[in-house]
């Protein structure tokens, strides 16, 4: 009877040990599974963000960037016209960001090219004394150059801007140029012809009367 009792007690202890070890393993695996599920959810969210929201956010960032470029060009044009009207000298500085499209989790930005074409001025005037176009008779001269901005790798549209003849225009990838302050280029040309546009205040010429007596004969 004692031998049988000992065998039953040994079997019960063995089963208890197996049960405890199995429970320990399950409790150790559960946190790992939970972490993997959390990572899977995070990866899904990041994938959806990158596939759906990032392109839209980049386009919105580019639209805001190009709006800033347009504002800078209009300010440039206004500064030039103001300098002409007031006959003032000086330096005007405007910051133009040469790229946009940077958003959270996607810092890649587009580029841009800012160019000032002073080697081929759009308008030039020179004033000479005594009516002789010689360098020693040159009193004053002025050049009006054009400047432009061109987008590179834009996430929305590769639009650009052109400042020419005192007019700021929008340049599109389809080679079309549309003035911002006027409805068409013809309207801008008509305004320049009729009212002088930015050129009407380019310079003033004053004179001092000087009576000269000439002997007849």
Characterize the structure shown.
Helix content is about 45%, strand content about 20%. The chain is built from two helices and seven strands, in the order H-E-E-E-E-E-E-E-H. The strands form two sheets. Strands 1-4-5-6-7 form a five-stranded antiparallel beta sheet, with helices on one face. A two-stranded antiparallel sheet has the order 2-3. Strand 4 and strand 5 form a beta hairpin. The termini are far apart.
Structural topology:
Blueprint: H1 2-86, E1 111-117, E2 123-128, E3 138-144, E4 146-152, E5 160-164, E6 167-171, E7 177-179, H2 185-195
Antiparallel strand pairs: 1-4, 2-3, 4-5, 5-6, 6-7
Q: Give the fraction of residues assigned to helices.
A: 40-55%
Strand order of the largest sheet: 1-4-5-6-7
Q: Characterize the biggest β-sheet.
A: 5 strands, antiparallel
- Secondary-structure element sequence? HEEEEEEEH
Structural class: alpha+beta
* Backbone CA Rg: 38 Å
The overall number of domains is 1
Shape: elongated
Number of strands: 7
Spans of at least 5 consecutive residues with low confidence: 211-215
Portion of residues in beta strands equals 15-25%
Q: What is the arithmetic mean of pLDDT?
A: 74
Number of helices: 2
Key attributes of the depicted protein:
single chain, about 220 residues, five-stranded antiparallel sheet, two-stranded antiparallel ribbon
Question: What's the quick description here?
Answer:
This protein is α+β, with helices and mostly antiparallel strands.
């Amino acid at each position: 009877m004692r031998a049988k009792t000992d065998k039953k007690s040994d079997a019960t202890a063995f089963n208890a040990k197996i049960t405890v070890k199995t429970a320990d393993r399950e409790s150790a695996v559960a946190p790992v599974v939970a972490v993997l599920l959390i990572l899977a959810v995070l990866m899904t969210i990041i994938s959806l963000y990158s596939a759906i929201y990032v392109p839209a956010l980049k386009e919105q960032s580019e639209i805001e960037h190009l709006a800033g470029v347009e504002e800078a060009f209009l300010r440039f044009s206004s500064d030039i016209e103001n300098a002409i009207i007031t006959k003032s000298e000086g330096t005007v500085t405007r910051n133009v960001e040469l790229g946009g499209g940077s958003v959270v989790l996607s810092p890649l930005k587009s580029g841009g090219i800012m160019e000032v074409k002073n080697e081929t001025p759009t308008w030039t005037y020179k004033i000479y004394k005594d009516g002789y176009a010689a360098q020693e008779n040159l009193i004053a001269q002025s050049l009006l150059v054009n400047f432009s901005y061109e987008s590179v790798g834009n996430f929305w549209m590769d639009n650009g801007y052109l400042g020419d003849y005192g007019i700021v225009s929008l340049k599109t990838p389809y080679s079309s140029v549309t003035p911002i302050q006027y409805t068409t280029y013809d309207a801008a040309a008509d305004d320049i012809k009729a009212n002088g546009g930015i050129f009407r205040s380019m310079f003033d010429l004053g004179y001092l009367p000087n009576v000269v007596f000439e002997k007849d004969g």
